[in-house]
Design a protein that fits this description.
By secondary structure, the chain is α/β, with parallel strands linked by helices. 35% of the residues lie in helices and 13% in strands. The longest helix has 19 residues. It holds the Pfam family OTCace_N.
């Protein structure tokens, strides 16, 4: 397990009895000019599985063509985060019992949020309705919308959270990232639009669940943590089990 794996992958592998060889840009030959393809090809000789997180969209797909061992995408910039999508669907099943028939609302920076890109794609395997709520200019990318539409899944964009909350079964919050805004004032305005509080959830279903890929900033009040509908910490724990299962599967030990 190598190439800057997140702590969750490291924990999963260690619980399976494995060891981690961690590599990042500062400690590898990348700083000497080595390409990603060469780095992955070399590290594949040192490990049984490669877990790669990279800031460039599409980098993991490119690296996979040069990797002789199983390669897991742990996030590629603003592109995709497939392991997060797997644990998200698993969490929904654990919390509600099924995914089919649900209305799932995704909120926040949907343009740059790789977690929602992968989740929307994965949810096309189920009978769901998708709702998107985001600040102006940060909506779900067209290529994701077109992919979802091509699978016959109902999807709709809304300007406010209050408008969609009563019909929502799964509220999937995401962090609005400061670096995407030209000024602090515009960032603060966008953040203030979507904050989940106990008062807001009085308008929601009693059995709705609130999820978040974490870390959160201001978008979910800490006062909500004791609400049974707050599933984000249970979601993080589910991520450990899903990553353990994924690692065991690709290593032929499942």
């Amino acid at each position: 397990c190598t190439t800057r794996p997140p702590s969750r992958c490291m924990a999963a592998l260690k619980l399976l009895g494995g060891r981690v060889v961690q590599v990042d840009e500062s400690s590898s030959s990348v700083k000497k000019g080595e390409t990603l393809e060469d780095t992955v090809a070399v590290m594949a000789g040192y490990a049984d599985v490669v877990v790669l997180r990279h800031p460039e969209p599409g980098a993991v797909s490119r690296a996979a063509q040069h990797c002789r061992k199983p390669l897991i995408n742990a996030g590629d910039g603003v592109g995709e985060h497939p392991t997060q999508a797997l644990l998200d669907v698993f969490t929904i099943r654990e919390e509600i019992g099924t995914v089919n028939g649900l209305t799932i609302t995704m909120v926040g920076d949907l343009k740059h949020g790789r977690t929602v890109h992968s989740l929307a794609r994965l949810l096309t395997h189920y009978n769901v309705q998708l709702q998107y709520v985001s600040p102006a200019g940060l909506g779900m990318p067209l290529h994701v919308v077109q992919y979802v539409a091509g699978k016959g899944i109902s999807q709709q964009e809304y300007p406010t959270l209050e408008e969609v909350l009563p019909d929502t079964d799964v509220l999937y919050m995401t962090r609005i990232q400061r670096e995407r805004f030209p000024s602090q004032e515009e960032y603060d305005k966008a953040c203030g639009q979507y904050v989940v509080t106990p008062q807001l959830l009085t308008k929601a279903k009693r059995k709705m669940v609130v999820m978040h890929p974490l870390p959160r900033v201001f978008e979910i009040s800490v006062e909500l943590d004791s609400d049974p509908r707050a599933a984000y910490f249970r979601q993080a724990e589910c991520g450990l089990y899903v990553r353990m299962a994924l690692l065991a599967m690709v290593l032929g030990r499942a």
